[in-house]
């Protein structure tokens, strides 16, 4: 009984500290971004979200806007490619289930149209070696579904650091 309580406290503690560190990192990035924007030294970072799930898109879009990001939303691969063609973006968040494309085809087309664009790929079921393949295909970060929005926002903040 005592061992179970100690074990539970031990496993809970580091997670809370890690989450607190993540929260502090995001807060520091937001503060730095707001200060730089106030000075007029940088524009708001532009994030393209290519995702079919409207609920996920809505939540992510709202949180990024509150943090000072400019966001564009594409509910299909074709509209995502059109946005990339029209505007320069600082980051793309790409879900693996997007209409009209498989995950690799859209990733390769994004890479061709915007070679320097950092892409965070969100993939579903656990498959062996998929992380390595995603990075080789051009994704700078890889996350599995279901995505924790706090972790995704921390990832976005570190990739698009001003």
Q: Tell me the radius of gyration.
A: 18 Å
Task: Specify the CATH homologous superfamily.
Answer: Response regulator
- Let me know the average pLDDT: 79
Subunit organisation of the chains: single chain
Number of domains: 1
3D shape: globular
The ordered H/E elements are HEHEHEHEHEH
Tell me the strand order in the biggest sheet: 2-1-3-4-5
Q: Got a strand count? A: 5
Broad structural category: alpha/beta
Helix count, DSSP H or I runs of 4 or more residues: 6
As a percent range, the share of helical residues equals 55-70%
CATH architecture: 3-Layer(aba) Sandwich
CATH topology: Rossmann fold
Q: Return the CATH class.
A: Alpha Beta
Could you tell me how far the N terminus lies from the C terminus, measured between alpha carbons in angstroms?
A: 49 Å
Largest sheet: 5 strands, parallel
- Unreliable residue stretches: 1-12
Strand content: 5-15%
Structural write-up:
With 162 residues, the protein is of the alpha/beta class. It has a single domain, classed as Rossmann fold (3-Layer(aba) Sandwich), CATH 3.40.50.2300. It contains six helices and five strands, in the order H-E-H-E-H-E-H-E-H-E-H. It has a five-stranded parallel β-sheet, sandwiched between helices. Helix 4 links the parallel strand 3 (91-95) and strand 4. The longest helix has 38 residues, at 2-39.
Key phrases:
single chain, 162 residues, alpha/beta, Rossmann fold, five-stranded parallel beta sheet, 6 helices, disordered N terminus
């Amino acid at each position: 009984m005592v061992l179970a309580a100690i074990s539970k406290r031990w496993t809970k503690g580091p997670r809370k500290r890690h989450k607190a560190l993540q929260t502090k990192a995001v807060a520091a990035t937001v503060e730095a971004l707001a200060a730089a924007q106030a000075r007029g030294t940088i524009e708001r970072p532009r994030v393209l979200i290519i995702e079919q799930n409207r609920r996920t898109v809505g939540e992510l879009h709202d949180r990024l806007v509150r943090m000072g990001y400019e966001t564009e939303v594409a509910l299909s691969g074709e509209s995502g490619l059109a946005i990339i063609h029209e505007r320069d973006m600082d980051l793309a968040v790409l879900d693996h289930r997007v209409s009209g494309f498989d995950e690799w085809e859209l990733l390769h087309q994004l890479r061709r149209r915007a070679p320097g664009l950092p892409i965070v790929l969100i993939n579903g079921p656990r498959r062996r070696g998929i992380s390595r393949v995603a990075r080789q295909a051009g994704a700078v970060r890889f996350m599995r579904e279901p995505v924790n929005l706090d972790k995704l926002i921390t990832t976005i903040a570190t990739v698009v650091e001003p």
